[in-house]
Amino acid sequence: MNLTVEDRPPSTATMRRTLGVRDGIAIAASSTAATTSIGIGMGALAVYAGRQTPALLLVAFLPILGIALSYSRLNRTEPNCGNGYTWVGRALTPWLGFLTGWVILVANVVFMAYTSAVAGMVVLQFADKAGLHSLFGIALDPTSTAVTTVVGLVALVAVTVTAVTGVRSATRFQWVLLAFEYAVLLLFCGWAVVSGTQEFSFGWLNPFAIDSFHSLAQGLVLAVFVFWGWDAAFTVNEETRSASDASRGGLIALVAMLGLLVFAAVSFQRVMDTGTLVEQGPQALTFLGSSLSSEPWASLPLAALMCSAFASLQSSVIPTARGALAMGRDGTLGRAWTKVHPRYGSPAVGTVIIMAVAAGVAVLAMGIPRINTMILTAVNSIGLIVAFYYGLTAAACAVRFRGALREGAAEALRSVIVPAVSALVLFGLGAYLAFQYATMSDHFEARPDNGWFMLLIPSLFVVTGLVAAAVAKWYRRSPYFATGRGTDADAIALPMDDAA
């Protein structure tokens, strides 16, 4: 028997409105994971942008800001924890809406899988510093995907427990981690800017100095991934006291992320030449610390990276479970995703399922022997998917509010023109790279520099999404595919919890 949304008991979709702007900032900032992005991403960006990495970040921010304004505009009209899934389904088509929700779900699971390995890598680097190089005859190699994944799975279980016990307690914990990691990041990056031996050049801010359009396009996709995560604030918009709290939290976190990324890019380049930065890869932040200070202070950036990885893992579990809850209550996913814990007010069952799936993906990724290779593979694949669903959401905003073209220049710019241009930029970027991937290799090989492999992974995201959509439409008979509308968050009893 297939239940429609109306058949479901209200208790399956009851969450508590306890969050404010501060909580939204914590979730968005932890999800973007500035320290993790800087620690493992600067080397990857330097591969394509070289000394123009700061310029690349500034250019990438422009369409992302347009996407963020689209999210904010849609959120004011229809706050829903499914956000893009709900908005795209209503404005464009339910098939694209479902696909948006699906690729967000899958991309977050893959992100959690590789971030757990990053957390494991950092723990093993600490073990190496402490002189612990093996355990039970197993070499504790921080560059090994297998060993880092096993350690990371323990971290994944731990953050899942904290996510289940309530989003409010989770955000309080994230603020502690954020305060520490940002303080360390600003201290060492500031130190690097002042004392670095590499001469600063304003040419670092010139995007036209990037070698080729292909390098610019590939670098922009990586930069989009680096900024990715601010939209996590919009997945708790049914748990905020007002819809505007989620919007402000996401936008504040995004602007802060831009400042941190550009500042860090300049500071890294003050200490390292391009060759060294590329060679260090995901160990670049650790290298920065050891270049500037001796132990034990040199380990502080590594500690900040560990805090960032744990906070990012936790903040990824939270929005992913809530997106799946929105899909579950619409009947496009199973009812298990809609079960909310009676004590903690969190989608506990969905949270645990997501953790288990992410753990499974992490185990499968152990077939990639070196963690540097696994990270680059995941980042390239997720970057294309993020460009895809951000573009769809911005396009949904432009279509839904197209009537604003008759309401004056300011409203037309904010609600239609900026979203439409941002969507076209990301679609164009994704299409260009897809073409490049399809033509750059003459054989298939599971490597991050093999075009067919890099195209296969995001293609699998989309193909599996279409299959899941077909199941939702014709087997589950979800009303979402008939109306194009998700369950209205305001129609569900969401009790206030003043004691929290």
TrEMBL record:
Q: Which Pfam families match?
A: AA_permease (PF00324)
Broad class of the protein's primary localization: membrane
> Which key words tag this protein in UniProt?
Membrane, Transmembrane, Transmembrane helix
Q: Which residues form the Amino acid permease/ SLC12A domain?
A: 34-466
Which membrane topology describes this protein?
Multi-pass membrane protein
Gene3D superfamilies assigned: Amino acid/polyamine transporter I
Q: Which domain of life is it from?
A: Bacteria
Q: Tell where it localizes.
A: Membrane
Indicate the transmembrane segments per the record: 25-49, 55-74, 95-124, 144-164, 176-196, 216-237, 249-268, 302-325, 346-368, 374-401, 413-435, 455-475
List the InterPro entries hit by this protein, alphabetically: AA-permease/SLC12A_dom, APC_superfamily
This chain's protein is named APC family permease
